[in-house]
């Protein structure tokens, strides 16, 4: 049975990194559209797959997994003999990848969330933006990017000179910044700008951004 990938149609959040992993690893799948407007993700059938009632979820021949990063890791390991090498095999390389992935989850993402909340989602919903809150959030996020500038001055990607799962995790929410006309990813410093432009030009991302989560084979 072909792998089922459950998500909404909006290209953003955990669904994006699962879609990117499917594309990078050249894994055939079926996209099952979850109608969030109709609260399909809160039905008993869906809650049986993810008790938190969130997307994305995968069903790999009866093996059901939620939490996007866990899904990606499962897929990368299962299909390690094909597609991109996203989880380095050497102990030291793997540990540096884990370090960078932990930084994304524990530092980058928590600093980015308040910026998105105030500077992207509020204007998107036509709610008033509190400029002081946004400025503070941008200051915090900017400080994290200053550290990224140093890290990315030492190597091409966040965990070394190869694109890895740690880089891939950054696609979940940071591309949404431009929806709020926040161009911080390409105005902080030359190294962050170079890295971000490279991520934004990656063919799998360009295709998903243009076409969404298409049903069928990649
Ligand atoms: N940590 C989870 C986050 C999942 C999540 O927050 N999903 C959002 C979409 S990006 C969702 O399902 N929202 C619907 C809701 O909150 O009702 C993951 O990475 O899979």
Number of strands: 4
Shape: globular
Question: Biggest β-sheet, characterized?
Answer: 4 strands, mixed
Structural class: alpha+beta
Give unreliable regions as ranges. none
Question: Which hetero compounds are present in the coordinates?
Answer: glutathione
Widest sheet: strand ordering: 2-1-3-4
And the CATH topology of the largest domain?
Answer: Glutathione S-transferase Yfyf (Class Pi), Chain A, domain 2
Compute the separation of the termini in Å. Answer: 16 Å
The average pLDDT score comes to 96
| Portion of residues within helices | 40-55%
Number of DSSP helices?
8
The quaternary organization reads as single chain
| Relative strand content | 5-15%
Which CATH top level class of the largest domain fits? Mainly Alpha
Q: How many domains make up the coordinates?
A: 2
Topology order in helix (H) and strand (E) letters: EHEHEEHHHHHH
- Using the CA coordinates, give the radius of gyration: 18 Å
CATH architecture tag of the largest domain: Up-down Bundle
Protein name: glutathione transferase
Domain GST N-terminal: 2-83
Pfam family, one: GST_N_2
Domain GST C-terminal: 90-218
Précis, in short:
The protein is α+β, with helices and mostly antiparallel strands.
Structure description:
The chain is α+β, with helices and mostly antiparallel strands and 218 residues long. It has 2 domains: 3-85 and 205-211, Glutaredoxin; 91-202, Glutathione S-transferase Yfyf (Class Pi), Chain A, domain 2. Helices cover 51% and strands 8% of the residues. A 4-stranded mixed sheet has the order 2-1-3-4, covered by helices on one side. A hairpin with a 2-residue loop joins β3 and β4. The model has no long low-confidence stretch (mean pLDDT 96). It binds glutathione. Residues 13-14, 36, 41, 53-56, 67-68 line the site of glutathione. May be involved in the conjugation of reduced glutathione to a wide number of exogenous and endogenous hydrophobic electrophiles and have a detoxification role against certain herbicides. Residues 90-218 form the GST C-terminal domain. This is glutathione transferase. GO terms for molecular function: glutathione binding; glutathione transferase activity.
């Amino acid at each position: 049975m072909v792998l089922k990938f459950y998500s909404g149609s909006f290209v953003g959040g955990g669904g994006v990194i699962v879609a990117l992993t499917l594309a990078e690893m050249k894994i055939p799948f079926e996209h099952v559209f979850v109608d969030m407007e109709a609260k399909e993700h809160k039905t008993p059938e869906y809650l049986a797959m993810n008790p938190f009632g969130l997307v994305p979820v995968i069903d790999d021949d009866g093996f059901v997994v939620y939490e996007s990063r866990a899904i990606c890791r499962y897929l990368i390991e299962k299909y390690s003999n094909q597609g991109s090498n996203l989880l380095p095999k050497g102990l030291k390389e793997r540990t540096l990848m884990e370090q960078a992935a932990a930084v994304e989850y524990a530092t980058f993402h928590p600093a980015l969330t308040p910026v998105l909340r105030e500077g992207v989602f509020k204007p998107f919903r036509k709610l008033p933006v509190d400029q002081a809150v946004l400025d503070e959030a941008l200051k915090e996020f900017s400080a994290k990017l200053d550290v990224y500038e140093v890290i990315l001055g030492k190597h091409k990607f966040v965990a070394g000179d190869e694109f890895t799962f740690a880089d891939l995790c950054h696609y979940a929410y940071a591309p949404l910044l431009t929806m709020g006309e926040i161009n911080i990813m390409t105005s902080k410093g030359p190294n962050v700008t170079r890295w971000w432009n490279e991520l934004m030009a990656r063919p799998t991302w360009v295709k998903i951004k243009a076409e969404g989560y298409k049903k069928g084979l990649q």
